[in-house]
Amino acid sequence: MTDPSDYLQRQYERTDPWAFETSAYERRKYDRQLRAIDDRVEDPDRILELGSAEGAFTSLLADEFSGAEIHGVEFVSEAVQRARDRLSDDAVRFFERDLEEFLTERTGTYDVIVWSETVYYVGANHSLPDLDRLVRTVADRLAGDGLLCMANIIGQEGDYEEPLTRRPIMNAYYELLAGELTPLQRAVYHERKAEMDERNEYQIWLFGGPDAAD
Question: Per the confidence metrics, is the pTM higher than 0.85?
Fold first, then answer.
């Protein structure tokens, strides 16, 4: 498998490599995450997006939660610059950083953390103990009554360079998170992404902080 960092760098040589901007499939996925957050967290003050890419979902978060301070973290410089060009809102800041370094160096907590479709890239470069430590670091940055929202592809098939999304591996990621946070939702969707002529399964996971109520 190609190193995920190299793969992502190459993908961002072109704008919007996964059609996040234009895909009806991606918009439905975004809308489901927004509704899930809005249903669980009232007027969040601080939102963190891990793997903010070019800011497509960040922009929707800023529109939906206009009173929130939003931080987006992405390590690919081209993606970060496009995100900054997109959003000039003073309440939205993008950081060109490795997410693990960012989380380790930051203080304070967030009411909402969005960590969608990047855990497989992180997992491909981490041993299981290292990934466990990272999950605990993410959990430490979540407010006691906060919400972690994730959308993840499951069992993607075909001749891809993407890191593994096999069901047993994704189940292991889920269990690591469930060991640190409160599982609230694991919703399953099967939809076709027309732009890539493929039918995917994805899941939206919700986890609450230690004070979360189901």
Answer: yes
